[in-house]
Design a protein that fits this description.
The protein is built from seven helices and ten strands. It is globular and about 45 Å long. The chain is an alpha/beta fold. It has a seven-stranded mixed beta sheet with strand order 4-3-2-5-6-10-9, with helices on both faces. It has a three-stranded antiparallel beta sheet with strand order 1-7-8. The longest helix has 27 residues.
């Protein structure tokens, strides 16, 4: 279910390190089973630390260094203006959650905003340092934000944190806490309908293979049964209820259509599937 896929660039290795023997790779077992808050956090921190280099090589060209993209379809904040008109972002304090290499935060800074980029993965933030920027980078769990109440005007998350946490209300309540009154939180996740289909870009990914209502997490685990990657499913109704229960108002739900210019295949995202079923859901929430 993860937003990764085939290589779309031929960049050289992007963070050089001393050479050391490559450890033998173990192919994790994919399964559906329960995974709690602590196990999910531990597994996903490790996964993104191990895979950050490959992710940035594979997706860095599409994401750019200072572009704000909401998902694999390529919906760009320049056109979408889900956080508001770019000219109104100047001077705003904005928290990016699950920032990765902080591409979105870098674009926000270019608009005159005051972003803070937060990610669970130290290695992802090393890529943010490599690209550069004058805004703070914070390594922390989105379920326990290290900021005072009312610290930010806006918050955003493009496929960050929410798909990977066992209890999304922990994150939503924390975001609500650190936003000022009238603040907006916009986040994108895999569209829930995708969980009913095989995670394949071709025709085999067009037939329903599982229950949309099965909330059992997707888990990849090692030989001893320890989770090394976890992704959690919420239905559209679950997402709405989580948002409202956390004190937000849902003001928009955006389901980006696949544009004609985008010929990329990333994991289960492709022009074929994108023309028929949505791949991303973007929730626009406001704090009263």
């Amino acid at each position: 279910m993860r937003w990764v896929g085939r290589k779309i660039t031929t960049r050289e290795p992007i963070i050089q390190e001393s050479e050391r023997p490559e450890p033998e790779r173990f192919e994790p077992e994919a399964t559906r089973r329960d995974a709690g808050v602590a196990e999910s956090s531990r597994a996903n921190r490790g996964w993104w630390d191990r895979n950050a280099d490959e992710y940035q090589v594979e997706h860095g060209t599409f994401l750019g260094d200072d572009r704000f993209v909401w998902g694999p379809e390529g919906l760009d904040e320049v056109e979408a203006e889900l956080l508001g008109p770019p000219e109104e972002l100047k001077g705003k304090g904005i928290l990016e959650i699950g920032a990765g290499a902080a591409q979105c935060a870098r674009w926000l800074a270019a608009q005159g905003a005051r972003p803070v980029a937060l990610d669970l993965s130290h290695r992802q933030l090393q890529h943010a340092l490599r690209i550069g920027g004058s805004f703070p980078l914070v390594c922390a769990d989105a379920g326990a934000l290290p900021f005072a109440d009312g610290s930010f005007d806006l918050a955003c998350s493009a496929y960050g944190a929410l798909p990977f946490v066992a209890d999304p209300r922990l994150v939503l309540r924390e975001v609500h806490r650190v936003l000022r009154s009238g603040g907006r939180f916009v986040f994108s996740v895999t569209h829930p309908i995708r969980w009913a289909f095989p995670d394949e870009p071709g025709p085999e990914g067009l037939s329903v293979a599982a229950s949309y209502f099965d909330r059992t997490p997707y888990v990849e685990q090692d030989e001893e049964g320890r989770a090394v990657y976890v992704e959690h499913h919420r239905t559209l109704g679950d997402r709405v209820r989580d948002i409202v229960a956390s004190g937000f108002r849902l003001v928009d739900l955006v389901e980006p259509e696949w544009p004609a210019w985008n010929s990329s295949e990333w994991g289960g995202w492709s022009p074929l599937r994108g023309a028929l079923i949505p791949g991303t859901a973007v929730f626009v929430c406001e704090r009263d």
